[in-house]
UniProtKB/TrEMBL annotation:
Enzyme class at the top of the EC tree: lyase
This protein's record includes keyword DNA repair: no
EC number: 4.1.2.4
Pathway membership, UniProt: Carbohydrate degradation; 2-deoxy-D-ribose 1-phosphate degradation; D-glyceraldehyde 3-phosphate and acetaldehyde from 2-deoxy-alpha-D-ribose 1-phosphate: step 2/2
Subcellular compartments: Cytoplasm
Major location category of this protein: cytoplasm
Gene3D superfamilies, per database record: Aldolase class I (3.20.20.70)
Biological process, per Gene Ontology: 2-deoxyribose 1-phosphate catabolic process; carbohydrate catabolic process; deoxyribonucleotide catabolic process
Active site: D94 (proton donor/acceptor), K158 (schiff-base intermediate with acetaldehyde), K187 (proton donor/acceptor)
Name used for this protein in its record: Deoxyribose-phosphate aldolase
Cross-referenced SMART domains: DeoC (SM01133)
Gene that specifies this protein: deoC
Length: 219
C-alpha cells in the first residue's frame, strides 16, 4: 500500500503511556499530534483533561486506556474508569480484556466484561477498542478474544498494550482481521517504529495503529 504522510497520519494513535510522562511531555505529545494531524493522542486517563484542552481546536481525538495494562481489574472498575475518562473528554476507550480468563477458556466472563464497558462507552456515544495482548495468546485464543469482543459489541480489536514481551505481529493482525471481517476495526499496537512497518500492518488488515514513534514514522 502507498500512502502519503498526511493519509498515514490519520491511521495513527499518537501514544504516550509512559509512567514517567510529565505534564510537559504530554503537552509535547499533543503538539506533535496537532502538527502531523494524527487520528488521536492516547494517554493514561489522568491526562485526559489536559489533552482534551490541548487538542480542542484540532481534528485530533483524545483517547485513553482502561484496565491497563493487565486487564485484571474488576468489571465495575473498568466501567467507572471508562465513564469518568469520557466525562473528562475522551472520545475513544482502549480496554484490556481479562487475559487470564481468556487463556483459561472462560469466554462467557470475558464477553460479559467487555459488554459492560462497551455499553457504558456507547451510551455516551464513543468508541471502544479491546486489547487482546496477543503476545500471551495462541491462535485459537486470539480468535476467541476477537469473537468475544465482537459479540460484546466492541468497535475494534487491538493487539497489544506495548507493556508485554512483544507487540503487534503481522500474522496476528491478519488473523484478527480474518476473524472480524469488515465488521470491526483492527488496531495494531506495539513495536511499530518505521513507515515500512506501519504500512505493512495496514496491508495485513490494520485500520488503526498505536505508535509512540509517530514523528520518526512521518518524517
Amino acid at each position: 500500500m502507498t500512502l502519503t504522510n498526511e493519509e498515514l497520519a490519520k491511521y495513527l494513535d499518537h501514544t504516550n503511556l509512559k509512567p514517567d510522562a510529565t505534564r510537559e511531555y504530554i503537552i509535547k505529545t499533543c503538539e506533535e499530534a496537532a502538527k502531523y494531524n494524527t487520528a488521536s493522542v492516547c494517554v493514561n486517563s489522568h491526562w485526559i483533561p489536559l489533552v482534551a484542552e490541548q487538542l480542542q481546536n484540532t481534528d485530533v481525538n483524545p483517547i485513553t486506556v482502561v484496565g491497563f495494562p493487565l486487564g485484571e481489574t474488576n468489571t465495575e472498575t473498568k466501567v467507572f474508569e471508562a465513564q469518568t475518562a469520557i466525562d473528562d473528554g475522551a472520545e475513544e476507550v482502549d480496554m484490556v480484556l481479562n487475559i487470564g480468563e481468556l487463556i483459561g477458556g472462560n469466554t462467557k466472563f470475558v464477553t460479559e466484561d467487555i459488554k459492560a464497558v462497551a455499553d457504558a462507552v456507547h451510551e455516551k456515544g464513543k468508541l471502544l477498542k479491546v486489547i487482546l495482548e496477543t503476545s500471551y495468546l495462541n491462535n485459537d485464543q486470539i480468535v476467541a478474544g476477537s469473537k468475544a469482543s465482537e459479540t460484546a459489541g466492541a468497535d475494534y480489536v487491538k493487539t497489544s498494550t506495548g507493556f508485554s514481551s512483544a507487540g503487534a505481529k503481522l500474522d496476528d493482525v491478519k488473523l484478527m482481521r480474518q476473524t472480524v471481517g469488515d465488521r470491526l476495526g483492527v488496531k495494531a499496537s506495539g513495536g511499530i517504529h518505521s513507515k515500512e512497518e506501519a504500512l505493512a500492518m495496514i496491508d495485513a488488515g490494520a485500520s488503526r495503529l498505536g505508535v509512540s514513534a509517530t514523528v520518526k514514522i512521518l518524517s
